């Protein structure tokens, strides 16, 4: 597609279950970012990929969170043993090499996660 | 660490009113500054940016000037339209974390006819 695609758009799960969130970046975009937005809060940086390498994982909230990326394509954010405080909108963004330096990130519409 | 503070919303204005959304930042070094906008049902998109002090970014009638002396990057528009109703995010970019952006909390704008 033309833009960044995220799925599912909405996910309701029970506390303790694992969830996977998927991001399809724009073709040719080498950089990929995951952010989290809790209700009433700003965007919280989680992790960044350059290709399939993640140089900076410092934003991941706990060891229940992990992410991987296949080549310069799809990325999956996995949350294990979900907790209610994980409820948020998870945003994915991608950027071209020049766009990355210029700060031009292209965002998906997000995956809204609700943990009951 | 680097951070951005922007005015809390929601902001409600009548069509053709003047808009200001305040944004101040704290950063080491000389970051680039951005305004992103999220229209209902859409992803965030870049509205404008400025990369050094005194630069003015502009797009779609919106403007913001990078003020190093006041560490500010306020967003302005002279005459808002109903179609400008959206959430506006101020952000800054350093040189770490792959140029990941630090965002403010966002300011919701509602423009009424």
Write the layout of secondary structure elements.
The complex is a heterodimer of chains A (116) and B (113).
Chain A: E1 5-7, E2 10-13, E3 19-24, E4 31-37, E5 43-50, E6 53-56, E7 65-69, E8 75-79, E9 88-95, H1 97-102, E10 106-107, E11 111-115
Parallel strand pairs in A: 2-11
Antiparallel strand pairs in A: 1-3, 3-8, 4-5, 4-9, 5-6, 7-8, 9-10, 9-11
Chain B: E1 3-6, E2 11-14, E3 19-21, E4 23-26, E5 32-38, E6 45-50, E7 56-59, E8 62-65, E9 75-77, E10 86-93, E11 101-103, E12 107-112
Parallel strand pairs in B: 2-12
Antiparallel strand pairs in B: 1-4, 3-9, 5-6, 5-10, 7-8, 8-9, 10-11, 10-12
- String of helices and strands of chain B: EEEEEEEEEEEE
Proportion of helical residues of chain A: under 10%
Uncertain stretches of chain A: none
Number of strands of chain B: 12
Report the sheet with the most strands of chain A, covering strand number, pairing sense and barrel closure: 7 strands, mixed
State the distance separating the first and last CA atoms of chain B.
Answer: 41 Å
Instruction: Describe the oligomeric state of these chains in a short phrase.
Output: heterodimer
- Low-confidence runs of at least 5 consecutive residues of chain B: none
Helix-strand pattern of chain A = EEEEEEEEEHEE
Helix segment count of chain B?
0
Q: Kindly report the average pLDDT value of chain B.
A: 92
> β content of chain A, as a range?
over 45%
- Rg of chain A over CA atoms, rounded to whole Å, is 13 Å
Question: If you had to describe this structure to a student in words, what would you say it looks like?
Answer:
The complex is a heterodimer of chains A (116) and B (113). With 116 residues, chain A is mainly β. Chain A has 1 helix and 11 strands. In chain A, the strands form 2 sheets. In chain A, strands 2, 4, 5, 6, 9, 10 and 11 form a 7-stranded mixed β-sheet that branches. Chain A has a 4-stranded antiparallel β-sheet with strand order 1-3-8-7, with no helix packed on it. In chain A, strand 7 (65-69) and strand 8 form a beta hairpin. Chain A is globular and about 40 Å long. Chain B is mainly beta and 113 residues long. Chain B is 0% helix and 50% strand. Chain B has strands at residues 3-6, 11-14, 19-21, 23-26, 32-38, 45-50, 56-59, 62-65, 75-77, 86-93, 101-103, 107-112. In chain B, strands 2, 5, 6, 10, 11 and 12 form a 6-stranded mixed β-sheet that branches. The radius of gyration of chain B is 14 Å and the shape is globular. The A-B interface holds A 3-4, 31, 33, 35, 40-43, 45, 48, 50, 55-56, 58-59, 91, 93, 95, 100-110 and B 4, 32, 34, 36, 41-46, 49, 89, 91, 93, 96-106.
């Amino acid at each position: 597609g033309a833009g960044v695609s995220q799925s599912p758009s909405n996910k309701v799960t029970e506390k303790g279950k694992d969830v996977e969130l998927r991001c399809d970046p724009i073709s040719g975009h080498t950089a990929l970012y995951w952010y989290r937005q809790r209700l009433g809060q700003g965007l919280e940086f989680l992790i960044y990929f350059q290709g399939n390498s993640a140089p900076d994982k410092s934003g991941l909230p706990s060891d229940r969170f992990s992410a991987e990326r296949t080549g310069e394509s799809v990325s999956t954010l996995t949350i294990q043993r979900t907790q209610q405080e994980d409820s948020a909108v998870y945003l994915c963004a991608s950027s071209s090499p020049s766009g990355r330096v210029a700060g031009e990130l292209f965002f998906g519409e997000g995956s809204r996660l609700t943990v009951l | 660490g680097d951070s951005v503070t922007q005015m809390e919303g929601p902001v409600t204005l009548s069509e053709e009113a003047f808009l200001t959304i305040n944004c101040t930042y704290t950063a080491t070094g000389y970051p680039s500054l951005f305004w992103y906008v999220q229209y209902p049902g859409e992803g965030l998109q870049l509205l404008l940016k400025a990369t050094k002090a005194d630069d003015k970014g502009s797009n779609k009638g919106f403007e913001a000037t990078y003020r190093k002396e006041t560490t500010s990057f306020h967003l302005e528009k002279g005459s808002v339209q109903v179609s400008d109703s959206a959430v506006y995010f101020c952000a800054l970019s350093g040189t770490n974390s792959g140029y990941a952006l630090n965002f403010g909390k966002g300011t919701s704008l509602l423009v009424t006819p």
